[in-house]
Design a protein that fits this description.
285 residues, alpha/beta, Rossmann fold, 10 helices
Length: 285
C-alpha cells in the first residue's frame, strides 16, 4: 500500500509523522500504543486491514510523539500531549470534518477530542480501549510491567506482544516485538505505560454527543471486555459490538467482523457529496 509520509508541527515545534492513503471520506485512525504506522503497513496482516479501509475511506495514520518517525525526544507525558498530536494532524491536513477511530492507549485522547471538537467529528469509533487506565490491571502488575520494560526492553517487548496478541505464532510475535524495539526505547515505553495507567476521562464521557461505536473482543487480554462495556454505557450516543477473540489489535483474528462493523457504522447517514479526500495539506514541514 503506497503512502506518502509527511510531517505536521505542533505549536511547540514537535514534528508528528503522518500519512494518508485511499479514497473517500477521511478517517483518522490513531496508533494503538507505541507501534509505528510503518510496521503495521509493512506487516501483511495489518496492511490488508488498512487496504480494506482505504477502498472506501481516505485513511490517515500517524506516529505519536516519542515513537517511530515522529520526534523521538518527548518530555511531556500527559494525555494533553497525545491530544495535541491528534489536533496537529487534523489541523495540519486541514480536515474540516472526519471520522475518528481511537484504539487501545490512544482511545482516551480520541474521547477528549470528540468532546472538545464535536463540530469536526462525524462519527467516533473506539476499538479495544478504555476510559480509566487505573483499572486496566492490578497495581502490582503495573509495577512489574513498567519495571521489566525499563530493566530489559528486549524481553519485555516480547512479553507485551504476547499479552496483546496471544496465539499469533512465534514468528509474528518476534516481528511485533522487534518493531516495538525499533519504534521506541524501553524508557519511553515505560513512561507511556505510566501515562496510560494515570489516564482518566470518565467525567468527559457524557459530553461526547457524536454517534459512537465501541468495538471490543470478549477475550481481550490487554483491555478487559468489561471496560469496553462500561465505556459504551456511559457514552450518550454509543452502541457496543462485542466481538469474539482475544487479540487486541483489530487486524489479527477475525478482522472481517471488525471491518464489517466499521463499514456499517460509517455508512449510516453518509452525506451525498461528502468530502472525498483531505484537501491540500497546510502547515506541513
Amino acid at each position: 500500500m503506497e503512502q506518502q509520509i509527511r510531517f505536521c508541527t505542533t505549536s511547540e515545534g514537535v514534528r508528528i509523522a503522518c500519512a494518508s492513503v485511499g479514497q473517500g471520506p477521511p478517517l483518522i485512525t490513531t496508533p494503538s500504543n507505541w507501534e509505528s504506522m510503518t510496521f503495521v503497513l509493512q506487516n501483511t496482516v495489518g496492511g490488508r486491514f488498512y487496504e480494506a479501509l482505504a477502498k472506501r475511506h481516505t485513511v490517515i495514520r500517524y506516529d505519536r510523539r516519542g515513537v517511530g518517525l515522529s520526534d523521538r525526544e518527548r518530555t511531556d507525558f500527559t494525555l494533553q500531549a497525545d491530544l495535541e498530536d491528534l489536533e496537529t494532524v487534523a489541523d495540519g491536513l486541514a480536515l474540516r470534518r472526519f471520522a475518528l477511530m481511537g484504539s487501545f492507549h490512544l482511545g482516551p485522547a480520541s474521547i477528549v477530542y470528540a468532546a472538545r471538537h464535536a463540530d469536526r467529528i462525524s462519527r467516533l469509533i473506539l476499538y479495544g480501549t478504555y476510559a480509566c487506565g487505573r483499572v486496566l490491571t492490578r497495581e502490582d502488575v503495573k509495577t512489574s510491567l513498567t519495571s521489566m520494560v525499563r530493566a530489559h526492553w528486549g524481553i519485555a517487548s516480547r512479553m507485551l506482544a504476547t499479552i496483546a496478541a496471544p496465539g499469533v505464532g512465534d514468528e509474528m510475535l518476534e516481528a511485533i516485538a522487534s518493531a516495538a524495539r525499533e519504534s521506541a526505547t524501553g524508557e519511553m515505553v515505560a513512561k507511556l505505560l505510566e501515562t496510560a495507567y494515570a489516564t482518566d476521562v470518565v467525567e468527559l464521557l457524557p459530553e461526547v454527543k457524536v454517534p459512537a461505536l465501541v468495538l471490543h473482543r470478549r477475550g481481550d487480554r490487554a483491555v478487559p471486555f468489561r471496560l469496553g462495556r462500561e465505556l459504551s454505557s456511559a457514552l450518550p450516543a454509543a452502541r457496543l459490538v462485542a466481538l469474539e477473540g482475544s487479540i487486541n489489535w483489530p487486524w489479527f483474528g477475525d478482522s472481517d467482523s471488525v471491518l464489517r462493523a466499521i463499514f456499517d457504522f460509517l455508512g449510516e447517514g453518509q452525506e451525498v457529496g461528502a468530502e472525498a479526500k483531505p484537501p491540500a495539506a497546510a502547515g506541513l514541514t
